[in-house]
Structure formats: C-alpha cells, structure tokens
Specification:
The complex is a heterodimer of chains A (316) and B (213). Chain A has 316 residues and is of the alpha+beta class. Chain A has 12 helices and 11 strands. Helix content of chain B is 33%, strand content 13%. Chain B is built from 7 helices and 5 strands. Chain B has helices spanning 11-25, 65-72, 117-120, 128-136, 145-160, 179-185, 196-207, and strands at 43-50, 53-60, 91-94, 97-100, 113-115. In chain B, helix 4 (128-136) crosses helix 7 (196-207). Chain B is globular and about 55 Å long. Classes of the chains: A alpha+beta (316), B alpha+beta (213).
Chain lengths: 316, 213
C-alpha cells in the first residue's frame, strides 16, 4: 500500500471541501473495496478522509411516504430495517445475496453504489485495462470474459458493475443525494448515476470531484411481489453471473432491473410492457442490441430463464 | 527481535527473524529507484479497546486493524489468510459486529471495542463456542478456527437480533437457527480442511438447536 495522510471529517460539506483541497484525496467509509484496491496499488490515494463520524447513518421517512437512507447505513442494517423488509423487500433480498456477513457489517449504502468492477483484468496490474489505466487497452475483450457485460459495452471496456444493492435501487427508482465542497446539494436519479463505459470507462459516475453522497432516497412503496433472483457459480458469497430484481403486480405488470449484464444496473423500462406476455417476449426486449463475447453468450438464455423463474415465483 | 515485546524466544520469533534476514539479503545493493512523488509514511496515535482493555498505539496510517492486533499488540490469535476479505480468518468482533479486520484501518477505530479470540475465552475458561468446536472437532489444521469461532458467536447474535439472510424464507419474519441459515451466514469463513460439517454441529450445539439435513 502507498503511504497516505489521514483525517476524520466533521461535517459532510467539510469532507467535500477537504477532498477538493487535497491532491489525491479519497473518502473512506466501510473501506472494504477501497482498501482491497489500495493493497494491490490499483487505488493509490495520497490522503484519506474518513467520513465514518458523519451523522449519516439513519433511515428516516420522507414527507412523500418514502424512506431516506443515510449514506453510512451499513448493508446489514439496511437489509434488517423493518420498513425495508416490509415495503421494499427486493432491496433486503438483494443486500443479503451480496458479499458475506462480515462485509455487509462494514459496507455502506453509498460505498456499495461506488464499488469498482471485479473484472479480473482491472485487478491484474500486469495487464492493460482502460478503466485502471486510461488508454492502455482492454485485455478482457479477447481474454477470459465469461462473467463480463453483454449490454451497453464499448470497444474500450466490457466490465460489469458488481453491486446487487444498486440493482434493487434501480428497480425502485431511488435517488442519490449529494453535497459538494460549496455546500450545495443535488439529487440524481439512480438511472443517471452510473455511466456506460464509452471511451472513458475510468469515469464511472457523474459525481464531481469532492462531491459526497449523503443519502439514497426511496419513493413511496409501490406494493407488488418483491423478488431478487441471483444466479452465481456457488450458492453463497459470489458475484452474480446474472441477477434479476423484480416488483410484480397482481395483474402481471411490473418492473425488472438486471445485474451482471452491464457497466451499470440495467433496466429497460420499455421492455416491462412485455411482462404479462412472459419471459421470452420480455427477455427479447431487454436484450435488444446485446453484444456477446466468445464466452459470455450464455447470459442471454440465462436471463430469459431467470425472468421466467421470477415471473413464475410471482404467480405462486 | 525486540527483547521487550513480552515473548521469550519462540518458534514465531525465529521464523519472523529469519524472514527479515532473507528480505535484507534479497535487496540488491544500490537498487535505488526514482519513485514518483509520494506521501511519506505517516504515523498516528489510536486508542483501541481490545478485549476490555484500552490500549494506545502509534501506527502507520496504512496499518490494518489485523496488523495492529497481530504485529503491534502481539495478539496473534487472529489470523491473516488472504488479506483481501475473502477468507474470513481475520474475523474479529468490533462494536458487537463481526468484520474482516484485514479490510479496515486501525486509525478508523478510535475508541472502538474489539473482541478477538483471546477475549472470548482462555484455555482455562473456554467460551461455549470454543468448547463446542473442541467437542465437535470443528477444525483440522486450526488456522481458520479463531475467525470461524468469532464469526459463529456473532452469527448467533445476528439471528437473535432478527437480521435476515439469503437463507431466510420470509424476509419480513424473524429468522431461526436452522442449518441452512448457519451455512449461509458462515459462508464468509473458508476452511480449506473442510471442517464445515463439524463447525455447523458445534454452532447448533451452542444454540441448543438440531441439525436439519
């Protein structure tokens, strides 16, 4: 790990100001992803701003009947919240399908959204990776890419976003709240929060330098049956090959979002009209424009089958 | 080796000394590489309440909680396996919750209460989970065992607190101590000897529940 200086932030806007002021600064909250990457020198911050002392660790109702989840709420506490389990079951389900008990106790709501891809070439500093080192090329496109993206990819990057939580946030139309160094706040719809790789896969979100996530808000509950179906190589503690977050209403209409498909949580609102017709029609609409590699084409039929499983479970 | 670190000459000391020697020998003379501009190493004081005792230590900011426990405080019961949060050998209980001590910095834990395997019980007075691991032979080589035991103790607390898991059928209901729940909740602790079955028996024993399937 490269050496760094360390400070504990007192307020969110002071943390944002420190991040702008200090060269090579990064925020640290749970640290479960950042420290892993620092040990491998994929991330080499010169200064860490510990935001754990900020008063951002509560879940509170919003005036329009939703929930405001503080940026520092741990994955365990979010999954265990009685309101989330009752009204946003897909979010609890997604959270407990990710990582391990130990990691969920540390990982935060904001940090989960900002975690980096687990593409093996991003982690391997002896290989080219446009995300790790812009302009160096992509070793994954012609390499071992069984687990990588099939939607929204570019010639520069086929990495996937690894989060389960973010997929549920996407199906629930969550909003990300931030503050910048001047103390100004803004609200970013989750649909616009993560970017596709394009020619700049190293830029993963629209956050400005120093901009700090303070909360994620959920709109008022939409009812329906909440399902998170994750398909992976082992039964627990593994990233998704594909995952489906679903909220299905009694008439068969609903919403679907997908993990393991793209550089961001994937959702095709227009495809949701096909849900009452079944998995085949829905998957065809979701996967229009898919670009597969020699190793990951299996994800297309796997998505159709997983949608089928989800729709059947919703009927049961 | 530091003579006032509280240990007489031991196998561990000899091994550590040996490694240091090998490292020095392996450094080519005059192999000074011009490094890019980097922050010089920085140390900070931090007070950790480890196993009920407040301890002030001065550590490089890069020091993980795991290395602070093992190298600075000489509490070597907590083990370093992968050092990347994948194996669970470093599991300790911080402020009542189990975490991977390799994936957190010591300086992030000012004033925190930390329980390691040494704080759960002693050879004379074992914690119930330690005794159950012995009774059920919940290990072979023993390297993952401190992490397994800390994780198991915290797992039963998490079920008691009503925290759901991937194995919980009705996500809104209170979870129960079932074999499926234990297997799922312990998946962050890897045992390369494959003592999983006996580990599950040990945890069931402490919980007073029966293995199912």
């Amino acid at each position: 790990m490269k050496a760094f200086t360390f400070e504990r932030a007192k307020t969110a806007s002071a943390a944002a100001a420190a991040a702008v002021r200090t060269p090579g600064a990064k925020f640290i909250a749970g640290g479960t992803n950042l420290l892993d990457l620092m040990k491998l020198q994929i991330e080499t911050p010169q200064h860490l701003i510990d935001v754990n002392g900020l008063d951002l660790d509560t879940i509170a109702p919003t005036s329009d009947g939703g929930l405001r989840i503080g940026a520092l709420v741990r994955n365990t506490d979010l999954a265990a919240d009685a309101r989330v389990r009752k009204d946003y079951g897909v979010l609890s389900r997604a959270l407990v399908s990710g990582a391990s008990g130990q990691l969920r106790n540390k990982a935060t709501t904001a940090g989960n959204l900002l975690q980096r891809t687990r593409c093996a070439y991003f982690y391997d500093t002896t290989k080219p990776c446009n995300k790790r080192q812009p302009g160096s090329g992509c070793a994954a496109i012609g390499g071992f890419n069984r687990n990588l993206a099939v939607m929204g990819t570019s010639d520069a990057c086929i990495a996937t976003h690894p989060s389960d939580m973010a997929v549920a946030m996407r199906v629930l139309d969550a909003t990300v709240e931030t503050v910048n160094s001047a103390g100004q706040t803004r609200a970013i719809p989750i649909a616009d929060f993560h970017r596709l790789p394009g020619t700049t896969p190293h830029i993963e979100t629209g956050l400005a330098p120093g901009e700090l996530i303070t909360a994620v808000t959920l709109p008022k509950p939409i009812g329906g049956t909440h399902i998170y179906q994750k398909v992976r190589d082992r039964a627990s503690y593994a990233f998704a090959l594909v995952s489906v977050a679903a909220v299905v209403q009694p008439d068969g209409r609903g919403r679907l979002a997908f993990g393991g498909l793209a550089h961001k949580p994937w959702r095709v609102e227009a495809a949701e009209a096909q849900m009452p017709k079944g998995a085949k029609a829905t998957a065809a609409a979701v996967l229009a424009g898919a670009r597969t590699t020699s190793q990951n084409a299996f994800k297309l039929p796997l998505i159709e089958r997983t949608i089928h499983a989800v729709l059947e479970e919703a009927k049961a | 080796m530091n003579s006032n670190d509280g240990f007489p000459v031991s196998r561990r000391g000899v091994i550590a000394g040996g490694v240091a020697t090998a490292t020095l020998t392996g450094t080519p003379v005059g192999a000074q590489v011009a490094a890019p501009q980097q922050t010089p190493p920085t140390t900070m004081p931090v007070t950790l309440k480890v196993n009920g005792r407040n301890t002030l230590i001065e550590v490089d900011t890069r020091t993980t909680l795991l290395d602070a426990l093992r190298e600075t405080m000489k509490l070597t019961g907590t083990k370093k396996g992968c050092d990347h949060g994948q194996c669970g050998a470093c599991t300790v209980i911080v402020e009542g919750r189990r975490i991977n001590s390799c994936l957190t910095l010591a300086v992030m834990h000012e004033g925190d209460s930390i329980t390691t395997i040494e704080g759960l019980g002693t050879p004379e007075k074992l914690h119930a989970m330690q005794a159950a691991f012995v009774k059920h032979d919940g290990y072979q080589c023993g390297y993952c065992t401190p992490g397994q035991i800390c994780s198991a103790v915290a797992t039963l607390n998490e079920i008691k607190e009503g925290i759901p898991s991937h194995a919980t059928g009705d996500i809104a209901a209170k979870p129960k101590v079932t074999t499926a729940e234990l297997r799922e909740r312990m998946s962050g602790n890897i045992c390369r000897c494959g003592a999983y079955s006996n580990i599950i028996d040990a945890i069931h024993d402490v919980a007073g529940t029966e293995r199912m399937a």
